[in-house]
């Protein structure tokens, strides 16, 4: 017999997880509010109520990397906080696994939902795959949101996390068509794979108007005074830079080479650079704080070798969304920003040798520049004058989370009442 409600554990751990998980929690709440009502010709039964338990692993713990995102995205406080914190790849993954196993055995959910490609994603998926509730009770289903993406670069910890998570998942929620093909090529295709769209884009679409209320452009001196009649374009042209991949920031020469690739752009436009904690640490270790103006005020524009770079602490979700929306150009090594700029129609230069999100390149918003200064300069020259084509990748329509919740309910029905079994 099915329980009175479906218990779902939702795992988040690091900054990019929060905007992927928030729309799913919103969709679950919307679904629960329909219990007892008839919608779209369907009666929503009480046993279809979903009880979600939000587990935060603590992979990211600073307010700037975590707490501020919970507030901006209206995420509820985590029900469980594992408090794991930083560590090497092995230590962090192992600590999350040890702590999550206790939660899993105590809560005995029917489904564990993991999102994205961070260490928390893989750690919790692995624990779930190998757990058993005893007495013949099967383990929970594992649902992976953002399945199927592949950079084919096994030196990236995220690629290992993606591949392994997909190979233990029962429900695979795919964001773009390349994901379907990749899963098929790896023999992971089947009834568990669902092309639902992109929950990170659900968040962009839900919050992009609200982001206009951010004061970030004024704070950074990027608003020009209005014209004589109080009219006219009041936002300066500027670019935004983010860098945090170990391959780009852990080696001094590699990092400086990338900054050299930005030198032409920096003479034409201010470049806002919200600096990830890992990158801040490296800048200190490399002795570049003064040269880069890391200790100066946020609105600095001092006469050092990198004039034009405006370094800030990591920004909150709405401030960063506002900054992206009005940017002339984004330069990044982030995966999510490649997608967000595609949604917003902002040209993006990706400082990596590859992308696991090829739809962003096919759409014409994103260009893969490599990590050498000359390639970066060439890509910037091309992208900075580009008007990206309008139009959105398939199913990037703000409804991905709703589709996911529908599949979760169907999967639970099938498991409880027959017609196939998703668990392997
Ligand atoms: C992680 C993810 C990466 C994601 C990125 C977004 C993995 C393998 N990597 O990388 O995919 O794009 O998050 O930010 O899961 N730190 C703080 N405060 C924090 C968190 C981290 O100071 O709240 C510092 C710590 O010194 C830590 C370093 O940043 O050692 C790196 O953090 P970690 O979570 O290990 O990986 P990220 O580089 O953030």
Describe the structure.
- The chain is α/β, with parallel strands linked by helices.
- The protein is about 40% helix and about 15% strand.
- The chain contains 18 helices and 15 strands.
- It has helices at about 15-30, 65-70, 90-105, 120-130, 155-170, 175-185, 200-205, 215-220, 245-250, 250-260, 265-270, 275-285, 290, 315-325, 335-345, 360, 375-385, 400-415, and strands at about 5-10, 40, 40-45, 50-55, 80, 110-115, 140-145, 170-175, 195, 240, 270-275, 310, 330, 350, 365-370.
- A seven-stranded parallel beta sheet has the order 5-4-1-6-7-8-9, sandwiched between helices.
- Helix 16 links the parallel strand 14 (about 350) and strand 15 (about 365-370).
- Helix 1 (about 15-30) packs across helix 18 (about 400-415) and helix 10 (about 250-260) runs parallel beside helix 17.
- The chain is globular, with a radius of gyration of 22 Å.
- The model is unreliable at about 300-305 and about 420-424 (pLDDT under 50).
- The structure holds uridine-diphosphate-N-acetylglucosamine.
- Uridine-diphosphate-N-acetylglucosamine binds near residues 15, 61, 62, 277 and 281.
Question: Topology of this protein?
Answer:
Blueprint: E1 5-12, H1 15-32, E2 38-39, E3 42-43, E4 49-56, H2 63-72, E5 80-81, H3 89-107, E6 111-115, H4 119-129, E7 141-147, H5 157-168, E8 171-174, H6 177-185, E9 193-195, H7 199-207, H8 216-219, E10 239-242, H9 246-249, H10 252-261, H11 263-268, E11 271-274, H12 277-285, H13 289-292, E12 309-312, H14 317-325, E13 329-332, H15 335-344, E14 348-350, H16 359-362, E15 366-368, H17 373-384, H18 400-417
Helix pairs in contact: 1-7, 1-18, 3-4, 4-5, 7-15, 10-17
Bound molecules: uridine-diphosphate-N-acetylglucosamine.
């Amino acid at each position: 017999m099915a329980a009175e409600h479906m218990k779902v554990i939702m795992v988040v751990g690091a900054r990019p997880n929060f905007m992927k998980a928030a729309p799913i929690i919103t969709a679950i709440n919307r679904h629960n509010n329909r219990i007892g009502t008839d919608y779209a010709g369907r009666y929503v039964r009480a046993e279809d109520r979903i009880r979600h338990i939000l587990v935060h692993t603590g992979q990211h713990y600073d307010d700037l990397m975590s707490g501020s995102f919970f507030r901006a995205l209206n995420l509820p406080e985590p029900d469980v906080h594992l408090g794991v914190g930083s560590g090497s790849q092995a230590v962090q993954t192992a600590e999350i696994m040890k702590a999550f196993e206790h939660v899993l055995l105590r809560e005995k959910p029917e489904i564990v939902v993991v999102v994205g490609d961070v260490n928390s994603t893989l750690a919790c998926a692995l624990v779930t795959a190998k757990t058993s509730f005893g007495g013949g009770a099967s383990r929970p289903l594992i649902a992976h949101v953002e399945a199927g993406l592949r950079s084919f670069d096994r030196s990236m910890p995220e690629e290992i996390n993606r591949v392994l998570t997909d190979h233990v998942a029962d429900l695979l929620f795919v964001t773009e068509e390349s994901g379907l093909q990749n899963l098929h090529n790896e023999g992971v295709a089947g009834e568990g794979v669902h092309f639902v769209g992109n929950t990170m884009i659900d968040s962009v679409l839900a919050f992009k108007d609200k982001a206009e209320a951010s004061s970030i452009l004024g704070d950074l001196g990027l608003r020009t005074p209005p014209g004589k009649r109080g009219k006219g374009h009041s936002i300066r042209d500027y670019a935004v830079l983010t860098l945090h991949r170990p391959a780009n920031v852990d080696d001094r020469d590699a990092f400086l080479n990338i900054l050299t690739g930005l030198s032409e752009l920096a003479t034409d436009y201010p470049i806002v650079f919200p600096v990830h904690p890992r990158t801040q640490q490296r800048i200190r270790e490399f002795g570049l704080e003064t040269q880069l103006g890391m200790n100066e005020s946020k609105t600095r524009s001092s006469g050092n070798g990198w004039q034009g770079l405006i370094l800030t602490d990591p920004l909150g979700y709405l401030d960063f969304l506002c900054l992206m929306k009005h940017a002339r150009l984004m330069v990044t090594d982030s995966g999510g920003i490649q997608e967000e700029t595609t949604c917003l129609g902002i040209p993006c230069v990706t400082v990596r040798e590859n992308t696991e999100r090829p739809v962003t390149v096919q759409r014409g918003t994103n260009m893969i520049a490599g990590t050498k200064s000359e390639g970066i300069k060439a890509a910037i020259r091309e992208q900075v004058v580009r008007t990206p084509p309008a139009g959105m990748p398939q199913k990037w329509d703000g409804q991905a989370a709703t589709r996911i919740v529908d599949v979760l309910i169907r999967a639970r029905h099938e498991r409880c009442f027959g017609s196939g079994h998703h668990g392997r």
